[in-house]
Amino acid sequence: MTLFSDKPNLRNCWHVVASDIEVTNGVLGRRLLGENLVLYKDSSASVIVAPDRCPHREAPLSAGTVTDGKLVCCYHGWSFGAAGKCVSIPSADAAFPIPKNSDLPCYQARIRYGLVWVCLGEPATDIPEIAQDSDAKFRRINNPVDIWKVSATRMIDNFLDIAHFPWVHAGTFGSSQRTLVQKIDLHDLSDGFHGYEYAVVADNPPAAELSSGQSGTEVNRLMTTGFCLPFAVRSTIKWDTGLEHILLLVTTPVDDVTSYFTFVVWRNDDFSVSSEDTVHFDRMIGAEDKVMLEKIPGVLPFEHGALANTQADKPSTAWRLKFVQFLDGD
Ligand code: FES
Ligand SMILES: [Fe+2]
Predict the structure, then answer these.
(1) Pocket residue to mutate for ligand 1, from 62, 76, 80, most atoms within 8 A of Cβ
(2) Sheet strands (E) in 42-176
(3) Which residue, judged by its Cα, is nearest atom 3 of ligand 1?
Protein backbone atom coordinates (compact mmCIF):
# COMPACT_ATOMS: atom_id res chain seq x y z
CA MET A 1 0.00 0.00 0.00
CA THR A 2 1.32 3.43 -0.82
CA LEU A 3 0.54 6.60 1.10
CA PHE A 4 0.66 9.20 -1.64
CA SER A 5 2.67 8.21 -4.71
CA ASP A 6 -0.20 6.32 -6.36
CA LYS A 7 -2.68 9.19 -6.03
CA PRO A 8 -4.22 9.93 -9.47
CA ASN A 9 -3.74 13.69 -9.18
CA LEU A 10 0.04 13.27 -9.09
CA ARG A 11 -0.12 11.57 -12.49
CA ASN A 12 -1.44 14.87 -13.87
CA CYS A 13 1.67 16.83 -12.84
CA TRP A 14 5.03 17.32 -14.50
CA HIS A 15 7.87 15.47 -12.79
CA VAL A 16 11.62 15.62 -13.43
CA VAL A 17 13.06 12.16 -14.10
CA ALA A 18 16.40 12.93 -15.78
CA SER A 19 18.64 15.64 -17.11
CA ASP A 20 18.49 16.33 -20.83
CA ILE A 21 22.13 15.35 -21.28
CA GLU A 22 21.55 11.88 -19.84
CA VAL A 23 18.95 11.08 -22.49
CA THR A 24 21.13 12.55 -25.22
CA ASN A 25 23.79 10.02 -24.27
CA GLY A 26 21.57 6.95 -24.79
CA VAL A 27 18.69 4.90 -23.42
CA LEU A 28 17.67 5.38 -19.79
CA GLY A 29 15.52 3.43 -17.36
CA ARG A 30 13.73 5.50 -14.68
CA ARG A 31 10.94 4.94 -12.20
CA LEU A 32 8.20 7.50 -11.56
CA LEU A 33 5.31 7.13 -9.08
CA GLY A 34 6.04 3.40 -8.91
CA GLU A 35 6.07 2.92 -12.69
CA ASN A 36 9.15 1.84 -14.67
CA LEU A 37 9.87 4.02 -17.69
CA VAL A 38 12.21 4.00 -20.65
CA LEU A 39 13.58 7.24 -22.13
CA TYR A 40 15.33 7.84 -25.44
CA LYS A 41 15.60 10.49 -28.14
CA ASP A 42 14.30 9.97 -31.67
CA SER A 43 16.05 11.17 -34.83
CA SER A 44 14.71 14.71 -34.40
CA ALA A 45 16.02 14.80 -30.79
CA SER A 46 12.52 14.68 -29.29
CA VAL A 47 12.52 12.83 -26.02
CA ILE A 48 10.31 9.73 -25.96
CA VAL A 49 9.06 8.34 -22.64
CA ALA A 50 7.12 5.08 -22.43
CA PRO A 51 6.54 2.15 -20.06
CA ASP A 52 9.73 0.11 -19.79
CA ARG A 53 8.10 -2.89 -21.44
CA CYS A 54 8.55 -4.19 -24.95
CA PRO A 55 5.16 -4.89 -26.59
CA HIS A 56 6.55 -8.16 -27.98
CA ARG A 57 7.58 -10.22 -24.92
CA GLU A 58 7.85 -7.57 -22.21
CA ALA A 59 11.64 -7.28 -22.10
CA PRO A 60 12.80 -4.08 -20.39
CA LEU A 61 13.45 -1.66 -23.21
CA SER A 62 15.91 0.22 -21.02
CA ALA A 63 18.27 -2.76 -21.48
CA GLY A 64 18.34 -2.04 -25.21
CA THR A 65 20.36 0.40 -27.30
CA VAL A 66 19.67 3.55 -29.29
CA THR A 67 20.98 3.77 -32.85
CA ASP A 68 20.18 6.64 -35.23
CA GLY A 69 17.27 7.75 -33.09
CA LYS A 70 15.76 4.27 -32.84
CA LEU A 71 15.45 2.25 -29.67
CA VAL A 72 16.36 -1.39 -30.31
CA CYS A 73 15.04 -4.05 -27.92
CA CYS A 74 17.79 -6.37 -26.70
CA TYR A 75 15.62 -9.52 -26.88
CA HIS A 76 14.57 -9.88 -30.56
CA GLY A 77 15.72 -6.57 -32.01
CA TRP A 78 12.39 -4.85 -32.64
CA SER A 79 13.01 -1.15 -32.97
CA PHE A 80 11.01 1.96 -32.13
CA GLY A 81 11.35 5.46 -33.56
CA ALA A 82 9.52 8.78 -33.39
CA ALA A 83 6.45 8.84 -31.12
CA GLY A 84 7.34 5.29 -30.02
CA LYS A 85 6.26 3.80 -33.34
CA CYS A 86 7.52 0.29 -34.05
CA VAL A 87 9.53 0.62 -37.27
CA SER A 88 11.31 -2.72 -37.63
CA ILE A 89 10.74 -6.38 -36.74
CA PRO A 90 13.83 -8.31 -37.86
CA SER A 91 12.14 -11.73 -37.66
CA ALA A 92 9.21 -10.74 -39.88
CA ASP A 93 9.10 -10.57 -43.64
CA ALA A 94 8.85 -6.96 -44.81
CA ALA A 95 5.57 -7.88 -46.51
CA PHE A 96 4.11 -8.84 -43.14
CA PRO A 97 2.30 -5.85 -41.61
CA ILE A 98 3.65 -4.65 -38.28
CA PRO A 99 1.05 -5.62 -35.63
CA LYS A 100 -1.17 -2.74 -34.54
CA ASN A 101 -0.30 -3.11 -30.86
CA SER A 102 3.46 -2.90 -31.46
CA ASP A 103 3.79 0.84 -30.85
CA LEU A 104 4.84 2.18 -27.46
CA PRO A 105 2.09 3.91 -25.45
CA CYS A 106 4.07 7.10 -24.88
CA TYR A 107 3.68 9.63 -22.12
CA GLN A 108 3.96 13.39 -22.53
CA ALA A 109 7.49 14.71 -22.03
CA ARG A 110 9.12 18.16 -22.22
CA ILE A 111 12.66 19.45 -21.96
CA ARG A 112 12.85 22.58 -19.82
CA TYR A 113 15.75 24.08 -17.86
CA GLY A 114 17.96 21.21 -19.10
CA LEU A 115 15.66 18.68 -17.43
CA VAL A 116 13.27 16.04 -18.73
CA TRP A 117 9.76 16.58 -17.31
CA VAL A 118 7.21 13.76 -17.66
CA CYS A 119 3.46 13.67 -17.11
CA LEU A 120 1.84 10.24 -16.84
CA GLY A 121 -1.69 11.64 -17.28
CA GLU A 122 -3.18 14.88 -18.55
CA PRO A 123 -1.21 17.91 -17.30
CA ALA A 124 -3.30 19.81 -14.73
CA THR A 125 -0.39 21.95 -13.51
CA ASP A 126 2.39 23.74 -15.37
CA ILE A 127 6.13 23.26 -15.21
CA PRO A 128 7.28 25.87 -12.65
CA GLU A 129 8.14 29.24 -14.18
CA ILE A 130 11.57 30.74 -13.57
CA ALA A 131 11.60 34.23 -15.08
CA GLN A 132 15.40 34.49 -14.97
CA ASP A 133 15.68 31.65 -17.50
CA SER A 134 14.89 34.13 -20.28
CA ASP A 135 16.89 37.01 -18.78
CA ALA A 136 20.25 37.44 -20.55
CA LYS A 137 21.84 38.80 -17.35
CA PHE A 138 21.48 35.34 -15.81
CA ARG A 139 23.16 32.09 -16.70
CA ARG A 140 21.74 28.67 -15.94
CA ILE A 141 23.78 25.93 -14.28
CA ASN A 142 22.48 22.37 -14.13
CA ASN A 143 23.40 19.64 -11.70
CA PRO A 144 23.04 15.85 -11.88
CA VAL A 145 19.76 14.14 -11.08
CA ASP A 146 20.56 12.07 -7.99
CA ILE A 147 18.59 9.44 -6.16
CA TRP A 148 17.91 9.93 -2.43
CA LYS A 149 16.51 7.28 -0.12
CA VAL A 150 14.13 9.89 1.26
CA SER A 151 10.43 10.56 0.77
CA ALA A 152 9.76 13.55 -1.50
CA THR A 153 7.43 14.79 1.24
CA ARG A 154 10.32 15.04 3.69
CA MET A 155 12.50 16.75 1.10
CA ILE A 156 10.01 19.56 0.47
CA ASP A 157 9.53 19.93 4.23
CA ASN A 158 13.30 20.38 4.52
CA PHE A 159 13.69 22.77 1.59
CA LEU A 160 11.14 25.13 3.15
CA ASP A 161 12.75 25.03 6.59
CA ILE A 162 15.36 27.50 7.83
CA ALA A 163 15.50 26.35 11.47
CA HIS A 164 17.84 23.49 10.53
CA PHE A 165 20.53 25.75 9.02
CA PRO A 166 22.61 26.25 12.23
CA TRP A 167 22.42 22.51 12.95
CA VAL A 168 22.64 20.57 9.71
CA HIS A 169 24.66 23.21 7.84
CA ALA A 170 27.13 24.11 10.59
CA GLY A 171 29.85 22.66 8.34
CA THR A 172 29.08 25.02 5.44
CA PHE A 173 27.11 28.25 5.97
CA GLY A 174 24.94 27.80 9.06
CA SER A 175 26.99 28.26 12.22
CA SER A 176 26.75 32.10 12.21
CA GLN A 177 22.97 32.09 11.97
CA ARG A 178 20.86 32.81 15.05
CA THR A 179 18.93 29.72 16.06
CA LEU A 180 15.83 31.81 16.78
CA VAL A 181 13.58 32.10 13.72
CA GLN A 182 11.74 35.39 13.35
CA LYS A 183 8.02 35.54 12.64
CA ILE A 184 7.32 34.18 9.18
CA ASP A 185 4.82 35.89 6.90
CA LEU A 186 3.69 33.68 4.03
CA HIS A 187 2.30 35.21 0.86
CA ASP A 188 2.24 34.75 -2.88
CA LEU A 189 5.63 35.36 -4.49
CA SER A 190 6.32 35.91 -8.19
CA ASP A 191 5.69 33.26 -10.84
CA GLY A 192 3.18 31.21 -8.85
CA PHE A 193 5.38 30.39 -5.87
CA HIS A 194 4.07 30.77 -2.31
CA GLY A 195 6.51 31.52 0.48
CA TYR A 196 8.35 34.11 2.52
CA GLU A 197 11.30 36.47 2.72
CA TYR A 198 13.97 36.41 5.39
CA ALA A 199 17.46 37.66 6.12
CA VAL A 200 20.27 35.51 7.47
CA VAL A 201 23.90 35.96 8.36
CA ALA A 202 25.78 33.12 6.69
CA ASP A 203 29.27 31.77 7.16
CA ASN A 204 31.50 32.52 4.20
CA PRO A 205 34.38 30.03 4.41
CA PRO A 206 36.90 29.84 1.52
CA ALA A 207 34.76 27.11 -0.11
CA ALA A 208 31.85 29.59 -0.27
CA GLU A 209 33.68 32.51 -1.83
CA LEU A 210 33.13 31.51 -5.45
CA SER A 211 29.41 31.20 -4.69
CA SER A 212 28.97 34.39 -2.66
CA GLY A 213 31.37 36.31 -4.93
CA GLN A 214 33.11 37.90 -1.95
CA SER A 215 35.58 37.18 0.83
CA GLY A 216 35.16 37.77 4.57
CA THR A 217 34.11 35.34 7.27
CA GLU A 218 30.40 36.24 7.15
CA VAL A 219 27.95 37.54 4.55
CA ASN A 220 24.40 38.84 4.69
CA ARG A 221 21.90 36.93 2.63
CA LEU A 222 18.48 38.28 1.77
CA MET A 223 16.46 35.23 0.84
CA THR A 224 13.04 34.22 -0.40
CA THR A 225 11.85 30.67 -0.30
CA GLY A 226 8.60 29.36 -1.68
CA PHE A 227 6.93 26.27 -3.12
CA CYS A 228 5.02 25.43 -6.24
CA LEU A 229 2.90 22.30 -6.00
CA PRO A 230 3.56 19.53 -5.94
CA PHE A 231 7.32 19.21 -5.47
CA ALA A 232 9.25 22.34 -6.45
CA VAL A 233 10.85 24.90 -4.18
CA ARG A 234 12.49 28.12 -5.35
CA SER A 235 15.01 29.68 -3.03
CA THR A 236 16.61 32.97 -4.01
CA ILE A 237 19.69 34.46 -2.40
CA LYS A 238 20.65 38.10 -2.77
CA TRP A 239 23.94 39.32 -1.35
CA ASP A 240 24.76 42.94 -0.43
CA THR A 241 26.73 43.23 -3.68
CA GLY A 242 23.59 42.77 -5.78
CA LEU A 243 24.66 39.30 -6.87
CA GLU A 244 21.60 37.04 -7.12
CA HIS A 245 21.54 33.27 -7.01
CA ILE A 246 18.26 31.50 -7.71
CA LEU A 247 17.91 27.83 -6.84
CA LEU A 248 15.14 25.62 -8.17
CA LEU A 249 15.04 22.54 -5.96
CA VAL A 250 13.05 19.70 -7.47
CA THR A 251 12.19 16.34 -6.05
CA THR A 252 10.29 13.54 -7.75
CA PRO A 253 8.74 10.49 -6.09
CA VAL A 254 10.21 7.29 -7.45
CA ASP A 255 7.84 5.80 -4.88
CA ASP A 256 6.73 6.86 -1.39
CA VAL A 257 10.18 6.67 0.18
CA THR A 258 12.67 7.12 -2.67
CA SER A 259 13.09 10.24 -4.76
CA TYR A 260 15.07 11.89 -7.51
CA PHE A 261 16.63 15.19 -6.57
CA THR A 262 18.21 17.87 -8.65
CA PHE A 263 18.70 21.61 -8.44
CA VAL A 264 19.17 24.26 -11.07
CA VAL A 265 20.92 27.58 -10.43
CA TRP A 266 20.49 30.92 -12.21
CA ARG A 267 23.01 33.70 -11.42
CA ASN A 268 23.60 37.24 -12.59
CA ASP A 269 27.38 37.10 -12.13
CA ASP A 270 29.97 38.04 -14.75
CA PHE A 271 30.23 34.40 -15.86
CA SER A 272 33.99 34.39 -15.12
CA VAL A 273 33.90 31.49 -12.64
CA SER A 274 33.28 28.04 -14.11
CA SER A 275 29.80 26.58 -13.64
CA GLU A 276 31.25 23.67 -11.70
CA ASP A 277 33.10 25.93 -9.24
CA THR A 278 30.07 28.19 -8.85
CA VAL A 279 27.78 25.42 -7.61
CA HIS A 280 30.36 23.42 -5.66
CA PHE A 281 29.31 25.01 -2.36
CA ASP A 282 25.62 24.37 -3.07
CA ARG A 283 26.44 20.71 -3.64
CA MET A 284 28.22 20.56 -0.29
CA ILE A 285 25.09 21.98 1.35
CA GLY A 286 22.88 19.47 -0.46
CA ALA A 287 25.08 16.62 0.72
CA GLU A 288 24.52 17.74 4.32
CA ASP A 289 20.74 17.64 3.84
CA LYS A 290 20.94 14.20 2.22
CA VAL A 291 22.89 12.73 5.17
CA MET A 292 20.31 14.17 7.58
CA LEU A 293 17.20 13.18 5.67
CA GLU A 294 18.32 9.63 4.90
CA LYS A 295 18.24 9.03 8.66
CA ILE A 296 14.46 9.66 8.70
CA PRO A 297 12.38 6.72 7.43
CA GLY A 298 8.95 6.80 5.86
CA VAL A 299 6.60 9.48 4.60
CA LEU A 300 6.07 12.82 6.36
CA PRO A 301 2.88 12.31 8.41
CA PHE A 302 -0.07 14.24 6.98
CA GLU A 303 -2.60 13.86 9.82
CA HIS A 304 -3.38 16.90 11.91
CA GLY A 305 -1.53 16.72 15.24
CA ALA A 306 0.86 13.97 14.17
CA LEU A 307 3.85 16.33 14.35
CA ALA A 308 4.80 18.99 16.89
CA ASN A 309 5.14 22.35 15.14
CA THR A 310 6.39 25.82 16.01
CA GLN A 311 5.97 29.02 14.03
CA ALA A 312 9.28 28.23 12.28
CA ASP A 313 7.47 25.27 10.67
CA LYS A 314 4.80 27.49 9.14
CA PRO A 315 6.07 27.23 5.53
CA SER A 316 6.26 23.46 5.48
CA THR A 317 2.94 23.16 7.29
CA ALA A 318 1.38 25.41 4.62
CA TRP A 319 2.83 23.22 1.88
CA ARG A 320 1.57 20.06 3.59
CA LEU A 321 -1.99 21.41 3.86
CA LYS A 322 -2.08 22.51 0.22
CA PHE A 323 -0.46 19.27 -0.91
CA VAL A 324 -3.05 17.12 0.88
CA GLN A 325 -5.86 19.26 -0.57
CA PHE A 326 -4.29 18.83 -4.00
CA LEU A 327 -3.99 15.05 -3.62
CA ASP A 328 -7.62 14.71 -2.59
CA GLY A 329 -9.05 17.37 -4.93
CA ASP A 330 -11.48 16.63 -7.77
S1 FES B 1 10.78 -8.74 -26.27
FE2 FES B 1 11.43 -6.98 -27.31
S3 FES B 1 11.77 -7.64 -29.30
FE4 FES B 1 11.03 -9.41 -28.28
FE1 LIG C 1 19.24 22.27 4.24
Answers:
(1) 76
(2) 47-51, 65-67, 70-72, 79-80, 86-88, 108-112, 115-119, 139-141, 146-148
(3) 76
